[in-house]
Amino acid sequence: MNFPFHDKTLEGQHILITGATGGIGYAAAKAAVAAGARVTITGRNEEKLSELKQECGGGDVFAVRADLSKPQARDQLVEAAANEFGPITGLLNSAGIGGGDIVENLSEEDLRGIMELNYFSLVELTQLVYKGMKDKEKGSIVNIASLSGLRGTHGNSAYSASKFAVVGFTQAFALEAIEHGVRVNAVCPGYVDTEMGRNAIKSKGERNGRSYEEQLKLAKESIPSGRLTSPEEVANTIVYLLSDAAENIVGESVKISGGSVMR
Ligand code: NAD
């Protein structure tokens, strides 16, 4: 797939990307740099962060290792990013975890852990970044929710509820933020071909006594386009939402699912 933007699409922007060591965040960081932004990347895997920085050519990338479930780590991340590249103009909230189980087997640890990272940490990091955007009367925030944040998915109640929360937060906050020139949107992918997407297919297979290959085949058959979405395709939508081309797109939940949303 060709990169559909040019190197000035995000020129002058400083984008903070969480979950940058994961599939979607990694692809989004590369795309944002190719689109001319300076990017602060964060995740928990030091090696993956260095590898990504190198792949992006080094100069326009600042890497910070952080566990986003820790308030102090969030504070330090936002402060370090602003010191390195100046005010943050775009935020991609991509860090997230899956897991959980059918409701009768769902542990308190999973229930609270999923909500803690996917919802509370996302909101609290956003609060920190929003302050600076509001002062400048400009900014774009993209939250990665999920198709599971728009409709329940089997065996996925904790994750699904956390992503419904992200969509609700996105819509309500978008109304406040747009009064100050800041756009807030969500992206809702179906299955994406990343570690998380593959784990979701594997778990579903295990619950139904099927191998990964059998469950993958069923997953593809359930998608009208017949395939999983690539992380690069999600990244392209993210770059668009971060750019001025999406100037009047506010409070949306952009679905990328090969048509699964209609099934
Ligand atoms: P991934 O597992 O490849 O990446 C997840 C990222 O979150 C990693 O960088 C990981 O380090 C980070 N993370 C997890 N816990 C963290 C913590 N405590 N502190 C800091 N970072 C932490 O997953 P992905 O497929 O790239 O998913 C990115 C986002 O997209 C997630 O929010 C996920 O829920 C969402 N999503 C994924 C799919 C899919 O099929 N892959 C579908 C819909 C939505």
From TrEMBL:
Q: Which CDD domains match?
A: SDR_c
Molecular-function GO terms, alphabetical: oxidoreductase activity
Q: Which SMART domains match?
A: PKS_KR
Q: Which UniProt keywords apply?
A: Oxidoreductase
Q: Please list the residue ranges annotated as the Ketoreductase domain.
A: 13-195
Report any Pfam family annotated for this entry: adh_short
Output the superkingdom of the source species: Bacteria
Known InterPro entries for this protein?
Answer: KR_dom, NAD(P)-bd_dom_sf, Sc_DH/Rdtase_CS, SDR, SDR_fam
- Supply the enzyme class, top level: oxidoreductase
Report the EC number(s), separated by commas if there are several.
Answer: 1.1.1.-
- Which family does the record claim for this protein? Belongs to the short-chain dehydrogenases/reductases (SDR) family.
Name under which the protein is recorded: SDR family NAD(P)-dependent oxidoreductase
Source species, please? Rossellomorea oryzaecorticis
